[in-house]
Amino acid sequence: MDWLFFGEISLAGLAMGGLYALISLGFVIIYKATKVINFAIGEIMMFAAYLFLAFAGGMEMSPWVALPLAVLGGSVLGGVIEKVMIRPMLGESSISVVMVTIGVASILVGLVELIWGADPQLLPSFLPRKPVFIGEMYLAPKIAYGFLIGAGLLIVYLLYFRFSRGGVALRATASDQAAAYSMGINVRRVFNLSWVFGSLAASLAGVLVAATGGLSPQFGAIGLSVLVVVIVGGLDSILGALVAGLFIGWLETVAGAYLGGEYRMPATFAVLAVILVIRPYGLFGTHEIERV
Amino acid sequence: MFESILSKGRRLAGIGSIAAALAAAPAMAQDKEPIVFGGSIPLSGVFAFAGVHLHAGLTDYTSWINGEGGINGHPVKYVMEDTGYEVDRSVAAFKKITGSNTVPVYYGDSTGFMKTIASELNSRGTTLMSGASFATALTDNEKYPYQFIPGPSYSQMFGIILEYISSQGEGGDKPTVAFVYSDTEFGKDPIENGKAKAALMGIEVVEEIVTKPGSVDVSAEVLKLRRARPDYVVFHGYVLSPINEFMVQMRQMGLDTQFMGTFWSSDKLIINKMGADSDGYMGVMPYNYYDSAEGGPMLDALRAQAEKSDPDAGYRPTGYMQGWFNAMVWTEVIKRTMDADKELTADNMAESLASIKDWDTGGIIGIPVSVQDMSFPVGRIWRVNAKEGRYEPVSDWIHLD
Amino acid sequence: MRIGDAKQSYEADEAIWTSSTQKIWLAIFLLALAVFPFFADSYLLYMGCLVGIAVISTTGLNILTGFTGLISLGQAGFMGVGGYTVAWLSLNTALPFPVTLLLAGLLAAAVGILVGLPSLRVKGLYLAIATLAASVFLHFIFAQWESVTGGMGGLSLEPAHLFGLTLQSDFEMYFVIVPLAVLMVLAAKNVFRTRIGRAFIAIRDRDISAEILGINLLRYKLMSFALSSFYAGVAGGLFAYFYRVVTPESFPLSMSIFYLAAVIVGGMGNLLGGILGAAFMTLIPEVLNLLTAALTPFYPNAPIFMSPMLEIIFGALIVGFLIFEPHGLAEIWHRIRRFFSLWPFRN
């Protein structure tokens, strides 16, 4: 058993897992506050990546200006989607809201293809190109730095939720809407902000993932892997998103390396199936108690 | 941001849409029946990057051949519909077009479409079909008697690549090879045959990597290749990503592996997107590139027509060459059938196709070509010169037997 | 104009078509369906067959999602099971097509039951994701189990045959697909006149209450999965006979979403809605095609925009119907009908 190789593969997997965790964080923020499963998260990521392409590529801005702009654009998009398409669905059955997000995903894919065309794209490079070595183990620079940037944002988020008023308001609304209302929290604004923050995380992850793997209107398919992460972690658990993100990223890469690329998806979905059977609400999710 | 639509649009407007294509037809003798070139063309959707140029090639050829008096005096009419690269739309287009015209030759936009339409095609017996698919399955003349490939099949492309690799071995030692392909029908197409051929030639396949389709991180796969240290990596089933990642990462690890690809990943897209990193990438291409140093009567005619229809376009991608060559083969087949005083049925045309031996293509392909199993197993290895931004030949024209 | 609604027997109350006007219109419609192929060209026949297959599959999904409230993202997977079963049987046995279709439906139903098992533990969106997982696994099996499914290349079928009669052309397939569709929709309608159908609806509305009322949740949920998957399997089998080739990429996730959209746009929990939704979603691309062809002389770029516009329209339809007309096309249809039946009065 080549431990060095296993270590390298694991590192690559964890780095990817960090990005999954970031996307899942965005997803969980949206779900926690508004109880909506956002199937369009992959497409919001894609849109942000295309914005980066436009700013850094077409308009030739410095990548370090283009990146925040693209992320801002993605966040705004999330806010707009919430205001225009999710808000009217307040109170409707969950399947309807989910289908709305699926519809939104389609619209975004069409929009992107309309504006930028269907050609495959590469993002202008902005991450260092020298390989990273941890001890003897090699780590590809893009995912290493991607992981660091993602982790940075994650820490900012966790601090914000813990200590700032906005963060507390978010958590309050998530745990009990009625109580939050009665405490004077503008719940509608919190809903919108949760989509903005969720899309922010997703947008950053989107640019980083596109930097590693290329971009095309089919980019949104990554949403499938993210879905697995949030179910395994628990739809409303931030800790779950982090832990499951790292785990699924690691597992997917290890399965791909040792079994073959075609086993990546089935391996992660197998974990999903197991979790659905033994702990349906995810490793850290809250069990919803239904009343008649 | 809008440059891509505008430039595409301009190209389309310059070359001609359906209306223009139809108008291009009756420049000649009105008394002879027009011959219809039908097509399910992917002008939009995932294959649009090639579809737009395939269409341009077919349209320009039609204009050109009509300028030359048509085929044996018959004017040519090109009737097409956009399919968005979806099989049901391709089939619907086929039925629409063949329902209202007699269509002796038809362009199919995908392997899926070719396979789906096969049994209908076989029972109709009126149409010969070729298209954007180089799928190995189409060389099975029993199942697909009326479908051909305007070039080498993917397996034959691998064969040509392996021939080249074999020739690069020094003193009896054969280089080692790794296959990297995508987990799709397209990607897996030539792999079994490729492995068999490699075994036959004594080339060791040290690693086989399957990637999941879509935007993926391939660093783990690169790690595997780092251990296998192949001399050559052959990519198939991709257009751009993740070839760039493999190339950049492996070179940074200090490997001096050579990278090669098949038809759809061997165009200027790689050079344009990867820039200097694309230097040294090799591809197998059955036709001369538009800006190839070679010439020939037909190649010159192609360049002249392309200039005429869209003077601002500049370089024309390989899709254009493919579309043009497709139409060339149709013309040749129809001509041979008519000259033998036979009716334009699928059987007769298939026979004419099979009779093509040592055919001089006037510069489109550098050597005379012969049809084998309904394909043209010929190609050449070209290498990217990133500084000049073009492909340059590094091998002779290889014709498999 | 219809006035009053007095029924004098249980039978009359349960009847599907109540007035003679309705029955006459129905007879005209069926006649039109039967006569259509004689006047239609190859292209229209092709579209007709596609709509027929879509109707069967949408009705199946409607039973599961619209009437029982169990969201499924696995419809394409079940259709795939049906399609591959038919393909394998047609290549390896000499069974006539009614038998192979039946077997395809039954096998799909069995798979449906398997997939439905988690429904005891999970509900709502978690169940939807379980069906998604099932779809991914099925896709994996289709692609990897080379000896049976032909791997990535898939299987090519012989045309359907029935005791020597082979069905090759769209004309012939039409007479298999459309009558079958009519039959299956009628069968579905009948289910909802029985206890089973009412149980499904009860589960959708409030499953805990249903259980209290004595409906065995697991049994009926599994039955719903089985029935719905049976329909999907038959639709998949017809798909296989129609296209005469099945590959793993014939039944992608986007097909599941397509059928879900058809159910929603048509009107969830309404069989007529299922039919309207299926027809509408299948014909939209062709309508767009015609529009593009009409616009091309003025805007030569028009064809390039067709594919992205289709995506946008698809998404916009889903969002639009959900926000503005949650009961779908069926509701619009009923409003039109009400207008005519109540005329000259307003309501």
The secondary-structure element order of chain A is HHHHEEHHHHHHH
| General shape of chain A | globular
| Number of DSSP E strands of chain B | 12
Radius of gyration of chain A, in angstroms, nearest whole number: 19 Å
Helical residue percent of chain A?
Answer: over 70%
> What's the arrangement of strands in the largest beta sheet of chain A?
1-2
| Spans of at least 5 consecutive residues with low confidence of chain B | 1-29
- Provide the CATH topology of the largest domain in chain B: Rossmann fold
Tell me the name of the CATH homologous superfamily of the largest domain in chain B. Response regulator
What class, by secondary structure content of chain B? alpha/beta
Largest sheet of chain A: 2 strands, antiparallel
Number of helices of chain A: 11
Would you state the CATH class of the largest domain in chain B? Alpha Beta
Residue-averaged pLDDT of chain A, rounded? 88
Strand segment count of chain A: 2
Quaternary structure: heterotrimer
Any low-confidence stretches of chain A, pLDDT <50, length ≥5? none
Distance between the ends of chain A: 55 Å
Number of helices of chain B: 14
